[in-house]
Each structure stands twice: as structure tokens, then as C-alpha cells.
Amino acid sequence: MSGYHEEAGDYAEPLPPAGVDQHRIEKAVREILLAIGEDPDRDGLLDTPARVARAYAEQFAGLDQRPEDVLTTVFEAGHEEMVLVRDIEMYSTCEHHLVPFYGVAHIGYIPSAEGQITGLSKLARLVDVYARRPQVQERLTTQIADALMTNLKPRGVIVVIEAEHLCMTMRGVRKPGAKTLTSAVRGGFRDSDRTRAEAMSLILGRR
Ligand SMILES: Nc1nc2c(ncn2[C@@H]2O[C@H](COP(=O)(O)OP(=O)(O)OP(=O)(O)O)[C@@H](O)[C@H]2O)c(=O)[nH]1
Ligand SMILES: [Zn+2]
């Protein structure tokens, strides 16, 4: 198990989602700049509305994606034991303040009796499908777990996310370093303390 590095390719720079109206974002950003007392026509800000529109199209690309779009490789390998990918880098956007929260996701599953598994990179892609939306960490965690249950029909799933929320560090309560941990367990990980403990020790070990 090791950290995940996004493969090069078109997924790294997704096309703007059809549902993201970049022109509308540009107009809104110009309004915000005016509202904070800035001059949107000064040199440094001239291209900012368009940049923000492109950035939002990327940050919210997951709104146009479904888990089955990325869980494309599912094969039978006769492997029935736990598979766990930990430390998957994750960047999302807090739906309350529209600022980032970021950290790592750990995903484990126990394949179906037929030994159905998916490509390891697909687990990381699945994180992005749900992270690239306005989110709360709890929903992000359960959506990943439920998508795996539906698409892989495994005997169990565990998803743990550790993240820092910029809305808690750069503003508001201002508690830098505070980490939020969320977990979602399904199937065997919910029913068996031993299985869950094994997964947690793999996730939290070697730190
Ligand atoms: N449960 C949960 N809360 C979140 C998440 N991201 C941000 N929040 C919280 O959402 C809450 C929104 O609270 P409000 O009182 O409506 O907004 P606010 O006045 O900006 O709150 P403060 O952040 O406390 O200044 C805050 O407590 C945030 O910390 C998340 O992923 N999950
Ligand atoms: Zn927030």
C-alpha cells in the first residue's frame, strides 16, 4: 500500500462540466470584486473572473460524474481478502463557505465471494468524483462507501477521511491543525469488531 499519484491523462484536467456556466461565474466574480471594494479593471484582476470560472469548473467537475464512470475496471481475481489503499490525497470544497478542505482518504473493501475487485487507481478516481463538488466531509465519506457497495457488491467497505477545513483555520474559529476524521463502515467492517480493528490498524499504523 502506498500513496496515490494521479496518473497523467485527460482525467487530470477534466473538461468543464456541462452544468457549470463559466460565463455566469465570471459575471458573479466581477460583482464580488466590486462588492469588496476592489477595482476589477485593474491590471492584476482583469483576468481573475475568467480564471476563477475555470478553477470552479475543475473544482466542481464531479457534479457531472457518476461512480460508474470511473469504476470501469471490475474483474474477478479470486481474491477474497481485504484490499486497502491509504493516504489518497483529497481536495474538496466546503459547501458552507466555498473554501477548501483537504487531506487524505483511506479506502478498504473485502471483495465479493466471487472475488470481484477493481483497479486500485479507480478508488482514487472515485474519491475525486465526490470530492469535486460542494461538500461536507460526512457526506463525502458515506457517498464513497455507498458507491463501492453498489458497484462492486463487496462483503464490506471502510472509508476513513482525515481533513483540515480552511473555514476553521483561515477564518472563523481559527484553529489551525485541527483535523476532522470521519468514517463509514459497511458490511463486514460494521459487523465484525476484529475486521474493523484490523483495517484501522492498517490505516493508522506506521505514522
Ligand atoms: N459537519 C460538518 N460541518 C462543517 C463542514 N465544513 C464546515 N463545517 C461547519 O459548518 C458550520 C457552519 O456554521 P454556521 O454557524 O452556519 O456558519 P459560520 O457563522 O460561518 O460558522 P463559523 O465557522 O463557526 O464561523 C461551521 O461550524 C463549520 O465548521 C463539514 O464538512 N462537516
Ligand atoms: Zn466551511
From TrEMBL:
GO terms for biological process: one-carbon metabolic process; tetrahydrobiopterin biosynthetic process; tetrahydrofolate biosynthetic process. GO terms for cellular component: cytoplasm. It catalyses: GTP + H2O = 7,8-dihydroneopterin 3'-triphosphate + formate + H(+). Transmembrane segments: none annotated. SUPFAM superfamilies: Tetrahydrobiopterin biosynthesis enzymes-like (SSF55620). It is an enzyme of class 3 (hydrolase). Its EC number is 3.5.4.16. Zn(2+) binds at residues 94, 97, 167. InterPro entries: GTP-CH-I_C/QueF (IPR043133), GTP-CH-I_N (IPR043134), GTP_CycHdrlase_I (IPR001474), GTP_CycHdrlase_I_CS (IPR018234), GTP_CycHdrlase_I_dom (IPR020602). It holds the Pfam family GTP_cyclohydroI. It comes from the Bacteria. Pathway: Cofactor biosynthesis; 7,8-dihydroneopterin triphosphate biosynthesis; 7,8-dihydroneopterin triphosphate from GTP: step 1/1. Residues 25-203 form the GTP cyclohydrolase I domain. CDD domains: GTP_cyclohydro1. NCBIfam families: folE (TIGR00063), PRK09347.1-2 (NF006825), PRK09347.1-3 (NF006826). Homopolymer. Belongs to the GTP cyclohydrolase I family. This is GTP cyclohydrolase 1. It comes from Actinorugispora endophytica. The lineage of its organism: Bacteria, Bacillati, Actinomycetota, Actinomycetes, Streptosporangiales.
